[in-house]
Structures are given as C-alpha cells and as structure tokens.
Amino acid sequence: MKFFIDTANLAQIKEANELGILDGVTTNPSLMAKEGIKGEENIVNHYKTICELVDGDISAEVLSTDFAGIVEEGKKLAAIHPNIVVKVPMIKDGVKAIKWFTDNGIRTNCTLVFSAGQAILAAKAGAAYVSPFIGRIDDSGWEGTELIAQISNIFSIQGFKTEILAASIRNPNHIIKCAELGADVCTCPLDSILGLLKHPLTDIGLAKFLEDAKKM
Ligand code: E4P
C-alpha cells in the first residue's frame, strides 16, 4: 500500500518525506486555503514546490464544475509538473472530464466518492485513482471502511485498474483497516502516520533495554 500525505503544509510534507515512506501528496481547496495560498500564481508555485519536495504523485484539485472549465483547468494543472494528478469531483461533468483526460494522457484522481456506484463510474472513465472519503462517512454514522472493502471486491472481480485511494483518514486504525481491506493508497494527515509508530510496550521495552545497557 502506498502512503500519501493529505496536506498542503510544506513543513508537514517535508517531515513525512524525511521518514522515507512517502509516495505522494493530496491537496484540496480547503487544505490550500488553510495554508493561506491565494491567487493563481501562488497556487501554481505552491504545487511546483510540493512537486520538487516529493518524488511521487501530487493531486491538485480543479475548482470548475462544468466540463469545459474542468478540462481547461486540468490541462493547466497537468502542465505544472509530470507528477501532477488532476483531482476531479464526482459529478456528471467530472466523469465526462475524467474520460477526456484519460483519452488525452492526463491522469486523474476522482474525489468526493461516497458510494460503490460512484467508484465504478470513475473507474469506467479511466481515473488513475478513486478517493472514497471514509472519515466523512464515519462522521455521518456509517462505517467508512466497509466502502473500501466493497470497492476493493468490485475492482478485483471486474479487473479495474483504477487504484483505491482511501481518503479522509482520521486515525492510525483507519490506515490499518484500509491496508487490510485492499486499499492501494492511504492519504493521511501527518499525525495519523506518526500514530502508527506508537505502542506503550515499545516505550517500556526500550526504556528497559537502555537501562540494562548501562550494565553492559
Ligand atoms: C483527500 O484527497 C481529501 O480531500 C481529504 O482526505 C478529505 O479529508 P477530510 O474529510 O478530513 O477533509
């Protein structure tokens, strides 16, 4: 399973990258706004900087919601760097645009996916990634990881090449469940990635080893 970090924060991207386990980055308009990135030039420069920091797929989201606008914006984003993956929302014009991008050699990440039917449409249109938002499903009182299992089963039966990118990760256990259920990628906040490191028995064991090492 690949690890992406889900942020536009450069310090966090650097920290995750330095761990040596990072395969890519996802951003969205909310994450970009949180970092105060405004205006076309600054947005493009921010994506360029992320692409220079991380050698892997970098998702950059379109803001348009009509076919012509999505295609125009996506072409500009894709021109920033070969590793840019154009993030397109799961709407009717989004599906049409994903098919256009597929036919024109531009890779896409279909975002805001909350059902298996939406994932099938994205895969049929040739999306490189489909992003089910498991945390937001949990927030609504359903079980987000069940969607990962369902999509994984369908893609395997149907032989779809689209990768399942588990998004809206809230905690380390989400990452473990997604790995277990067949997600190809997890995009996670830094604290969820670092949370995987933690176990009290590791801390107790290390303290004892270091104490005993003084007697060596
Ligand atoms: C990633 O591609 C998504 O934009 C992101 O994981 C959404 O996460 P959130 O539900 O925590 O906002």
UniProtKB/TrEMBL annotation:
A single GO BP: ketone catabolic process
One GO cellular component term: cytoplasm
Database matches in InterPro entries: Aldolase_TIM (IPR013785), TAL/FSA (IPR001585), Transaldolase_3B/F6P_aldolase (IPR004731), Transaldolase_AS (IPR018225), TSA/FSA_arc/bac (IPR033919)
Cytoplasm in keyword set: yes
Annotated Pfam families: TAL_FSA (PF00923)
Keyword tags: Cytoplasm, Schiff base
GO molecular function: aldehyde-lyase activity
TM annotation in the entry: none
Cellular localization per UniProt: Cytoplasm
Protein name, UniProt field: Transaldolase
Organism from which the protein derives: Flavihumibacter petaseus NBRC 106054
Gene assigned in the entry: tal
